[in-house]
Amino acid sequence: MNESINLKPGQINGEKGIWEMVIGLEIHAQISSKSKLFSGASASFGAEANSNVSLVDAAMPGMLPVINEFCVEQAVKTGLALNAKINNVSIFDRKNYFYADLPQGYQISQFTKPIVGEGEIIIDLDDGLQTTVGIERLHLEQDAGKSLHDQHPSKSYIDLNRTGVALMEIVSKPDIRSPQEAGAYVKKIRSILRYVGACDGNMEEGSLRADCNVSVRKSGEEFGTRCEIKNLNSVRFIIQAIQSEAERQVEILEEGGKINQETRLFDTSTGETRSMRSKEDAHDYRYFPDPDLLPLEFSDSWVQKIRETLPELPDSLKKRLVTDFGITPYDASILVEEKDYVDFYQKAANGKDGKLTANWMITELFGALKKENISLSNSPISPENLGQLIALISDGTISGKIAKDVFAEMMISKKSPSDIVKEKGLEQVSDDTEILKLIDKVISENEDKIKDYLGGKDKLFGFFVGQVMKLSQGKANPGIVNKLLKEKLK
Amino acid sequence: MSDLLKFDLLSASIALKNKEFSSLELTNAYFEAIEQTSALGAYLEIVKDRSMDMAKASDKNIKNGTARPLEGLPIGVKDMFCTKDVKTTASSKILENFCPTYESTVTQNLWDDGAVMLGKLSCDEFAMGSSNETAAKGNVVNPWLKNSKMSPGGSSGGSASAVAARSALAATGTDTGGSIRQPAAFCGITGFKPTYGRCSRWGIVAFSSSLDQAGPLTRTVSDAALMLNSMASYDKKDSTSANLEMPDLMNYLDKGIRGKKIGIPKEYTQDGISEDIVLFYEKSINWLKDSGAEIVPVSLPHTKYALPVYYIIAPAEASSNLARYDGVRYGKRNEAASLDEMYEITRGNGFGEEVKRRIMIGTYVLSSGYYDAYYLKAQKVRRLIKEDFDNVFEEVDYILTPSTPTTSFELGKKQDPLTMYLNDIFTVPASLAGLPGISLPVGLDKSGLPIGIQLIANSFDEPGLISTARVLERSAEFNFIADGAAK
To answer: Is A213 in contact with A25 (CB distance < 8 Å)?
Structure first.
């Protein structure tokens, strides 16, 4: 084993060489719809158990599903945003299995003919590089209910509020090669979903969950046998689970073992995956077209109409930010992560120094908001006020250092920076006569040190600048202080 | 009082409007008839208080001159229709105490048009059967040859028996592969299965979603027209319901068939059909010819595959449709230690033999490895069967066939399932193609049992089908009353 090799992300340096991961993701995204996919019941989160259940959701005899057209539109919008093929005809199938929280005894899903076909997205990696991940398909399906096993010693309770809630399953191609890429992929999908408004992307409330298919191979070899890790609900867990699963597989393979194709669960307390069911135990879902529903059929012109409602998407926005505002692609990729961010930035940077605005927004504002645990939409500093602050810095009214104090004050008082500057008299002093007075004072108070300086102790120059600044309470223009002080001490 | 039973739906409707008698009197007469014929076992549930209230309300409307199309007419409802606050069991033990909180669209349409509900009628369990013997509470008896205990047919056996026994003025039925037409034929009445999509399936216990269709069982073709007028409607709650206005069928009763072409498919006169049926089939052909129709021999080459195709598709859909009867939310539950055990016991005890057989067939044909060979192939052949009809309807206007290969058979003579399935051989093809079909009685066989003849029309041509059936009805002059009917 060579200790000095540089491993790329997603590579595992085993006893017997370097392994590479092959990863594919299935993302389940809950559609932001007031009502469920096939019933009029509310799809809201957090309601009292079994309060959002219609006759259809409870699968009462003779009840029939009726497609929620809003959900169909969201799926098509998402498909278009994923640069994917919209299938003009798609079919709903029944996926049959018995479980207490599945009232119909089948889940209505799409099997052979999904609403959206192949597409691709570009993902941004931390090192500023980009890579493309293929989309295999996107289909619509119903969520199941929730089983509560810990409420009673011998019985399980069932909550059907989630039953029938509309989900989109977005399946990637096995194009992902590292846990970090997987994380970036999920972030990008989440961002796209939020841009088009199809899903709120809230992973804590379960609006976005991922199943990860992981296998390992030696570079250039065929794909290995994969395992599926079910139901991961944070980017951090996705990264951890994939890493741990890949390491487990490498260990087995290097010991001469074989990978069993199976479904696994990620234990967040141990950080490891464990077996849930093997392929042999897999259900035979007996998929067949749901005879209660007609095929979904779209005309090209209808799809075109939907396309026209799409907002500008992150990739295009990113390019535009780089061109229009002269910021780095890396900063741009951070700003386009959320539609909120871009909107804020564009307002703040309007007519200002784009680069400076991006720095202040990403470093200072995001930092401060994170510290206070406030979302950008509730920011005490409005985009207009941030822009004003940038303008005050750019035109020399205040120094960068003073700007930080003003910013801190803005966070607390929500006041505009110019008001704060005025109230506190923080304008920068750039007047030569004013500054010369200060310089003279410093010279008269430090005669000894002046001698030393003139005697060759050059380092003391900084000290004098500092003293002048201190005397001006930070308001003196440091450039001018430097210039005048040098002239004076020649 | 018994005179009131002589009125059929249409004539009773006229008599009520002329105030010859009241709905309350008529409804009472029917409750007496129900009592008199209770040994037939047609009714699972009667709702006398509700009936009386409905009848009184109808009488008020008639008095006020605001009578609706079915005002005051007492009818029975097949137990496959969910009826609000009235037990709805689909003749199954698994739903034995199930009481819906909602009303099916079809029955709601009937009540909205003024009909009076008598009660719920027995049927084969989940409408799976052709003899009414799979009903959890036991079979229904055909009022014909009452001492011989003949089958009323199925699955709408209770509906057919009640209408024939005059314990209901008319009844609703559902037809998946012949469940309206075959019992109508066995009981000497008219049974009309409309085009798939004409009647909403919302609130009807599902058997096979792509085939199930509601329709009326009545004494006459006019009655069928009157009933279907009210039953049919476009319903947003049923995605497969047809958004197509149905013309008032009462305007088509006397249009005649002069110049119309009647197709006689060669595939429907095969071995195994009773001689008497063949005789009356030929008579029917001649009656239509004498009434001015042109008789055209046609071929529906894929007919022979219809029954096998049906017994793949219908059980496949049923195996999935019946998964909801799991003891978790409603219906009967047998407690057990684990969820899987609870399912096994609940469903094992709750479903009868025939239902279990079909669930197993359906599960099998949808299983991975068998799906392509059975389900997928069956769907392909179903399309070919539909194409057969499409081709024939380019040449002819209607198709005439026997309704059943035999007349009614004795109850309790255990038949093997395959023989039983053959009962539907003439009704299944139109079901698979989604076409409207009507069975009407044209005569009695040597033993005195009714013989039914079926007319099939192109999709949504219910009006023409009514015109043609009326011509046949007039020629046949079937005026017999079952010996087991209420007097």
So the answer is: yes
Query: Whole-angstrom Cα distance, residue A470 to residue B363?
Result: 86
Query: How confident is the model over B413-455, as pLDDT tens digits?
Result: 867 888 888 889 999 999 999 999 999 999 999 999 999 999 9
For residue B340, give both structure tokens.
């899987």
Asked whether the beta carbons of B296 and B396 are under 8 A apart, the reply is yes
The packing angle between helices B23-36 and B48-63, to 10°, is: 150
- Please name the residues in contact with B429: beta carbons below 8 A apart, sequence gap of 6 or more: B300, B303, B306, B385, B388, B389
CB within 8 Å of B406: residues ≥ 6 apart: B273, B274, B277, B423
Interchain CB distance below 8 Å, B205 and A105: no
CATH topology of domain B2-256: Amidase signature (AS) enzymes (3.90.1300)
Residue A168 tokens read as 């989109």
Closest CA to B132 of B187, B88, B82, B85: B187
- What Å distances lie between residue A394 and A469, A475, B145, B167, CA to CA? 20, 15, 106, 95
Mutate: best of A292, A293, A294, A296, partner B, most B CBs <10 A: A292
pLDDT of A148-172, one tens digit each? 999 998 889 999 999 999 999 999 9
Rounded CA gap, B291 and B479, in Å? 20
Sequence ranges of the domains in chain B: 2-256
Complex ipTM more than 0.90, yes or no = yes
Domain at A432-488: CATH architecture: Orthogonal Bundle (1.10)
Partner A contacted by B210 (CB < 8 A): yes
Burial code of B234-269, b = ≥16 C-beta within 10 A, e = fewer? ebebbbbbbeeebeebeebbeeebeebbbbbbebbe
Domain locations in chain A as residue ranges? 25-216+274-305, 312-424, 432-488
Q: If interface means Cβ-Cβ distance under 8 Å, which residues of chain A face chain B?
A: 55, 58-67, 94, 96, 98-100, 103-106, 156, 158, 284, 286-288, 290-294
Tokens in use for A43? 């799809």
Partners of B88 on chain A (C-beta within 8 Å) are 61
Q: DSSP for A280-318?
A: GG------EE-TTSPPEE--HHHHHHHHHTPPPPHHHHH
pTM: 0.91
- B29 to chain A, minimum CA–CA distance in Å? 32
